[in-house]
Amino acid sequence: MARSDVDVKKLLAQMTLEEKVGQLVQLNAMFLGESSAEITGPLEKLGIPQSYMSKLGSTLNFHGAQEMMDIQRKHLEEDRNHIPLMFMMDVIHGFRTIFPIPLGLGASFDPETVKECSRMAAREASAGGVQVTFTPMVDYVRDARWGRVMESCGEDPYLNSVMGAAQVEAFQGDDLADHDNIAACVKHFAAYGGAEAGRDYNTVEISERLLREYYLPAYKACIDAGVKMLMPSFNSLNGVPSIANKWLMNKVLKDEWGFDGVIISDYNAIGELKKHGITDDMRLGAKMAFDCGCDIEMMSSSYYKHLADLVNDGEISEQKLDEAVLRVLELKKELGLFEDPYHGASPEKENSVCLTPEHRDIARRAAEASAVLLKNDGILPLSEDIKRIALVGPFAATNEIKGSWSCNGENEDCVSVYEGIRSLLPNAEIIVAEGCSAKYDELSEEGIDAAVAAAKGADAVVLCLGEPQKYSGEGNSRADIGLPGIQMQLARKVIAANPNAVALTFSGRPLVLTELDKLVPAILHMWFPGTEGGSAAADLLFGRANPSGKVPMSFPKAVGQCPIYYNHPSTGRPKSKPDEIHQPYSSNYIGCGNLPLYPFGHGLSYSSFVYESLELDTDTMTKDSEITVSITVLNDSDRAGKEVVQLYMHDIWASAVRPIQSLIAFEKTELGAHERKTITFKVREPMLRFYDLDCNHISEPGEFTLSTGCADHLVLTKSFTLK
Ligand code: BGC
Fold it and tell me: Which atom of ligand 1 is closest in space to residue 234's alpha carbon?
């Protein structure tokens, strides 16, 4: 793809101050385009006149290629500099073809799956007119009450980093001007996932050590992978909202990490400095954000109103303003927009690229790779010879399984569980009985009797339970993270009627499934699997596909355990048996163990994997040497399957308290029936580092262990010494 030879510096030199500021203002696409003249209300509220629209540098949220082209064409006619707009959107887990929510992709433990999905999303989104996606979201999360955990890859900094970088690489490719690629924007910097009590937008107070150790690595990994843009988070971090947090934005992001991409505020985040009680003066707000490196203001008007004055009054230097505008223009140039302002998009292309059988196949495989078999007493997979099957529960036949942030995906495009099983078993008798609602405030018991009757005569029962897709995502935190409504009542009655009931669960977060786990012989967790969710569920239930996902975020036993995460620091009074109920004067709860119901890294398979050995090639290491760890796994079954081999490290003695385990490497590998494989990992000194009390990133000589298995169930361990 030929690159535009436009000289953006020359272009900048011919721009007025007002035009420069315009490049730094982003408004919703509903204010642009043909129908925009009617939409005066919200614009009036922002205090921006319609006549300003032709000065804008970028826009967000529009509906496909046609709208993008109409807006772009009109804009180019009106802008005397003919600088194309940049079109941005939240392409979080697919554009039209929706793949599993990012937490589900985290469960795949497979960066290749993540890349394949992201490349598909980039192709579709680009054809549909998107040039920048507000992805990846790599907020580190520990509290399942927070609705946005669904956008994250979970509670491990390393897993989050690997998956974040994979997304950046796949979305952006090697050349942004290539029409299969779009620019990525990492978010939300920083520690949005640390929202107190899991309540969205809530305050975040975290020590610098903790921040650097758990929360920051994934953003850094995305920057190292070349991400073009970054979005600061809504929350206040240690007293100051990120958008105005000099320590975070200037010291860490710019000085230490050298980030030189475009920074965009989150939606009205500068405007919210008022609500935060930082300042009522939006001129000051604009200056604070600009001084913290924010190039583009999204959906508030402080830059429009005050940036030019701040420059004229010498409070912001014109050079700094020019640098910000240049960053925006450079990105447009890299995207090839000066040459092709539509970046290859068209309604025809959008139609032919989106939702193709190939893309559906990618979504289906990703949904299969993301599902986690939480429990199985041997009842799964079900036999395809089953004559009569009862699908019970609110997720039995619904196509509302895309999950939040599904961009342009439609419920109507999603394959429901019923449809998935129907096409797999065309001759089986399938009885659907929803039984009850999944909503917390719909408590009608009317459907339960029919569900029980359906279960009674069935050869197999699949209880399709979960939380509605709108219960997670932005602004959707929950204080109780069990199955909402009367679903457990339904489950109890159905299981009493037919104990051969397996559970198929859907959610945007880890749920508390403690009672369900006691009642049913098997639970297969689908997250929100996307467009091909029902097909994937059918394949998995009947053994056409073999589950291989692992828990990326602990499923607590009780909501009171939140925040719960495997890699927590040692305490001075650990329980000797962490899951025993109450041990006086140790760190624990009355009436509930310490461990989650399903820990990080847990996930069963229809194959049976035996960890035979973990060997180190040496038991000492220096700062310059490495240890080769060899882990041998046997597939002791007749069925091929995939296993995620996980390597955990523990630093036994250190000057600062260390996590009881930390994941430092993993590999998902396929093993044929009865196949034995040895997976090797290299361990080097930087993998052993931590932040000391002065926040230096160091390692300390001493004894370490390396283990494999999953977080709360390590099966093999060896130790070594760092000299
Ligand atoms: C969200 C961001 C998103 C932005 C634009 C905000 O409300 O916090 O994650 O990118 O809206 O849609």
Answer: 8
Q: Which residues lie across from 160 on neighbouring strands?
A: none
Residue 517 makes CB contacts below 8 A (sequence gap 6+) with: 374, 375, 523, 597
Q: Is 266 a catalytic residue?
A: yes
In a domain, 619, yes or no: yes
Cα torsion through 397, 402, 407, 412, rounded to 10:
-20
The answer to whether the beta carbons of residues 258 and 293 sit under 8 Å apart is no
Distance of CA 252 to the CA centre of its chain: 23
- State in Å: Cα 554 to ligand 1 middle: 26
Tell whether 616 and 684 lie within a shared domain.
Answer: yes
Q: Judge whether 232 lies within some domain.
A: no
- Assigned domain for 423 exists: yes
The closest residue, in CA terms, to atom 8 on ligand 1 is 266
Cα-to-centroid distance, 394 and ligand 1 (Å): 29
pLDDT at residue 251 in the model: 98
- 8 Å CB contact between 605 and 380: no
Q: Where are the alpha helices (DSSP H) in 300-346?
A: 302-312, 318-334
Same domain for 518 and 410: yes
d(CA 525, CA 537): 9
**What span, in angstroms and rounded, lies between the C-alpha atoms of 679 and 633?**
8
Residue located via tokens 């523990």? 650
pLDDT digit string (tens) for 327-368?
A: 999 999 999 999 999 999 999 999 999 999 999 999 999 999
Q: Is pTM beyond 0.90 here?
A: yes
| CATH number, position 557 | 3.40.50.1700
Structural domain range at position 637: 609-722
Give the active site residue among 79, 110, 266, 651. Answer: 266
Cα 267 to ligand 1 centre (Å): 6
Total domains in the chain come to: 2
Do 479 and 377 fall within a single domain? yes
In a domain, 659, yes or no: yes
Element (H, E) at 492: helix 487-497
Residue to probe by mutation, ligand 1, list 134, 135, 299, most atoms within 8 Å of CB: 134
Amino acid sitting at position 331: L
Dihedral pair phi/psi, residue 656, rounded to 5°: -125, 145
Residues 452 and 540 grouped into a single domain: yes
30-78, pLDDT tens digit by residue? 998 765 545 556 778 899 998 899 999 999 999 999 999 999 999 999 9
Same domain, 539 and 685: no
Burial class (CB within 10 angstroms; exposed 0-12, middle 13-18, buried 19+) of 653? exposed
Low-confidence ranges of the chain (pLDDT < 70): 1-4, 34-41
d(CA 514, CA 117): 32
Q: In the numeric block, which tokens belong to residue 318? A: 């014109």
Share of the chain above pLDDT 90, in %: 95
